[in-house]
Amino acid sequence: MQYRLLGNTQIKVSRLCFGALTIGPLQANLTLQQGAAVLRRALECGVNFIDTAEYYQTYPYIKEAIKGWDSEVYIATKSYAYTAEGMKESLETALRELNRDWVDIFLLHEQESRLTIEGHYEALEYLLKAKEAGKVRAVGISTHCVDGVLAAASFNEIDVIHPLINIEGVGIQDGTVNDMLDAIKVAYNANKGLYGMKALGGGNLLARYDEAVDYVLALNELASVAMGMQTLDEVDYNVKKFNNEKIPLELQLRVKRQPRKLHIDRWCQGCGACVERCQAGALSLVDNKAVVNKDLCRLCGYCGAVCPEFCIKVI
């Protein structure tokens, strides 16, 4: 496993980051023991970086996975809190549920622009005080927006940016892939630590796995790339890919045969763009929310590419 420094944080992370959303109740909903076992396999394979969020409800899995683990593990989490009191509660929850004395990286969750960062500045100020107190090592934002990356790059107090980037730009809310790449370069030149998300477009690019992963690994500005994994085989597959090792045919077949489903997040706005895009007639609107007919769904991922809220995933 390769490791890189995350900007100026002095935190040296594995190129492969474990994206913990997938194992939790919002997606695969694995049992505590199942999810912890998948995480533990990643640690045993050299992954030392875990990305999560308060909203994901995966702290218990991480706590269980790192129990008794002697090597360094870096955890990044996120909160939607916008007040000092709200962020204080979020940090205390993370420390308590992870059974840790500090959080390595704490991010403002899903920031869109300078306006939203300024609107959350009270929470950011609290994190900066927590950093001085040794309860947080680095602070930053996660974002699906080009403007979010550019704005964060201009804040001296921000250490880390977690942007959405993939070969097709699936999920970028305010621009193209090239726009996001330009913004990432600006942030990198401002000495921000960067680690990417949604390399597979929320699973919508699974059919182009090699091409999609090769694309993000070629971006020198990214210290690490978060990948959602929900089985031991997926961990082994991703580790070998990131290590540039040959993937055994048997492992390839097991991963390809793994049952998948279309997952629609609870924040769907019912715009109908996915319904119009679906050529299989598998999607419809019920009570202003998109629902899928699993018998008709081809898992092509085309619907995810047109969702303005990035709430359609293949898991």
Beta content: 15-25%
Content-based structural category: alpha/beta
Quaternary form: single chain
The named CATH superfamily of the largest domain: NADP-dependent oxidoreductase domain
Tell me the domain tally: 2
Mass-distribution shape: globular
CATH fold topology of the largest domain:
TIM Barrel
Q: Characterize the main sheet.
A: 8 strands, parallel, barrel
Overview of this protein structure:
This protein has 315 residues and is α/β, with parallel strands linked by helices. It folds into 2 domains: 3-257, TIM Barrel; 262-314, Alpha-Beta Plaits (2-Layer Sandwich), CATH 3.30.70. Helix content is 36%, strand content 19%. The chain has 12 helices and 14 strands. It has helices at 32-44, 59-66, 84-98, 114-119, 121-132, 146-153, 177-189, 209-217, 232-242, 249-257, 273-277, 302-306; strands at residues 3-5, 12-14, 16-19, 49-51, 74-79, 103-108, 136-143, 160-163, 193-196, 224-228, 262-264, 283-286, 289-292, 312-314. Strands 3-4-5-6-7-8-9-10 form an 8-stranded parallel β-barrel, surrounded by 6 helices. Strands 1-2 form a two-stranded antiparallel ribbon. β1 (3-5) and β2 (12-14) form a beta hairpin. The longest helix has 15 residues, at 84-98. It is globular, with a radius of gyration of 19 Å. It starts with a strand and ends with a strand.
